[in-house]
Amino acid sequence: MATDRKPEFFKGAQLNVGIIGCGYVGLPLALRFAEAGHRVTGFDSDPEKVAKLNAGKTYIEHIPQTKIQQFVHSRHFSATTDFSRLKGMDAILICVPTPLDERREPDLSYVEATVRSIQPHLQKGQLVVLESTTYPGTTEELVLPILEKSGMRCPIAKGPEAEKLPVDFFLAFSPEREDPGNKQFGLAQIPKVVGGINPASGQAAQALYSQVVARVVPVSTARAAEMAKLLENIFRCVNIALVNELKLLSLRMGIDIWEVIDAAATKPFGFMPFYPGPGLGGHCIPVDPYYLSWKAREYDFSTRFIELAGEVNTAMPYHVVDAIAAALNQREKSLKGAKVLLLGMAYKKDVDDLRESPTLKIMQLLHERGAKLDYNDPYFPKLHKMRHYDYSHMKSVALDPKTIASYDCVVIATDHSSYDYAAIVDAAKLVVDTRNATRRLVRHREKIALC
Q1: Looking at the structure, do residues 275 and 384 belong to the same domain, yes or no?
Q2: Could you tell me which of 158, 156, 136 has the C-alpha nearest to residue 144?
Q3: Rounded to whole angstroms, how far apart are CA atoms 415 and 424?
Q4: Whole-structure pTM over 0.85, yes or no?
Q5: How many domains, the chain?
Q6: Contact call for residues 288 and 230 (beta carbons, < 8 A)
Q7: What is the Cα 88 distance to its own chain's centre?
Q8: Are 222 and 195 in contact (CB under 8 A)?
Q9: Is residue 409 domain-resident?
Q10: Which of 95, 284, 409, 451 is catalytic?
Q11: Which of 112, 160, 262, 316 stands the most exposed, by the fewest C-beta atoms within 10 Å?
Q12: 375-394, pLDDT tens digit by residue?
């Protein structure tokens, strides 16, 4: 492997690209690089995932099996648990989880373990890019010192003079912008922000990603790129919290918040619609703002908007459970002992993604208050043990009129397109709708409680 590489090297054809973490972020990225003609190796600690990928099988609903098979057969993609093979990579992209711990503080254990697995195999001239969302400073303060234990150097610098500094390996941050199930914007169409810890690293990352996305957006530092990703998600978090709070007020005032949002959205400037729901889900919005608020404390700075938005959004599953109890009470039925069917486990419609789904918290709260629970989700025939929840004993129940009618309450937690909402309302005794999925139904409005 060459030791005097320039950033322009990464514009070359058929690079060896290693992607660590073959999940919702890493796997689409791996397939995109394979599609562009590069040789891609997916690294993952889960041997079951690796075996499936090498057999050309998918485990993510929106990634077609035929696409994996195509690149496995052409030898543009393979997967492995053998991290010693990192030695042969030109670029190494880190796509591992960055969750919160029990105290809602950043848990960088996956990132740290990954970087420690790279360090013994790091070669001169390699490019390492962190894609996992994190607080500003992670690439410089956590990733760089571990990699430099190899004896190689990648100096932190910016400006014209920095371009003259010798660089043994390249290091950058480029936040993922994957949106599972989004048919309008795929990875290739979404602009890619990149920031290196020095100019050469930024140029190398820009050269690499320019081969697989329509537009690369360079910023001056890795810290700026890290902050840009947090801004994107905090913007959404704060606005969702605002509309969730307005929903609660509108319910008390007897106003349809969905009608209000639709009316406000007709303004052609200065307004962007956000919609209320049963709580936040997904890998970004419920988690990422806390990364910045945690880091801000190091600078004696209180991020009040972020913390308030977090409080509002965290409270939404509790509101849903109270609304279920109130709706049952109006029908002279106690929540304790009530049979409740939850529709939709995924954090958003039409995806097989459970990460941080508010339905999981709703289930926990209903169970604690004595409800008898079942669920239906076409994307989850059965549930598995998760980081904070264990519903591995539960399986999706059939959704037919007789089954629906046997429950005291049906809760629409995720508004999958495959659900026949008219048939559900016809058969159900009571429907609690957290997503306004029933808004166009005329019949049996008396059965529906919006919350």
Answers
A1: yes
A2: 156
A3: 12
A4: yes
A5: 2
A6: yes
A7: 30
A8: yes
A9: yes
A10: 284
A11: 160
A12: 999 999 999 888 788 999 99
> Is residue 415 pLDDT above 50, yes or no?
yes
- Position 361 pLDDT exceeds 60: yes
Residue 348 per-residue DSSP state: S
Angle at 357 between CA 390 and CA 350, to 5 degrees: 115
Residues 71 and 179 grouped into a single domain: yes
What would the two tokens of residue 260 be? Answer: 């209000």
Verify that 205 and 262 share a domain, yes or no: no
- CATH assignment of the domain containing 417: 3.40.50.720
d(CA 328, CA 331): 5
Give the model's pLDDT for residue 2.
Answer: 42
Q: What is the dihedral of CA 319, 325, 329, 333, to 10 degrees?
A: 170
Domain shared by 216 and 249, yes or no: no
Considering only CA atoms, which of 167, 204, 434 is closest in space to residue 322? 434
User: Is 409 designated active site?
Assistant: no
- On whether residue 365 sits in a domain, the answer given is yes
Domain that holds residue 185: 7-221
415, 309: one domain: yes
Residue 51 tokens, joined? 């075996």
- Asked if the structure places residue 102 within a domain, the reply is yes
Same domain, 106 and 69: yes
DSSP state of 142: I
Last residue of a domain, one of 162, 188, 221: 221
Q: Specify whether 251 is located in the same domain as 197.
A: no
- Confidence band, pLDDT 50/70/90 cuts, at residue 3: low
CA 163 to each of CA 78, 95, 160: distance values in angstroms, whole numbers, following the listed order: 36, 28, 6
Shared domain check, 290 and 171: no
Q: Does residue 54 lie within any of the structural domains?
A: yes
Q: Give the C-alpha separation, 192 to 370, whole Å.
A: 47
SS3 state of residue 375: strand
Amino acid at 120: P
| Tokens, residue 450 | 């919006």
Residue 207 has pLDDT above 60, yes or no: yes
Residue 285 and residue 289: Cα distance in Å, rounded? 7
Which of 158, 187, 221 is a domain's end point? 221
Amino acid residing at 84 = S
d(CA 56, CA 79) in angstroms, rounded, equals 10
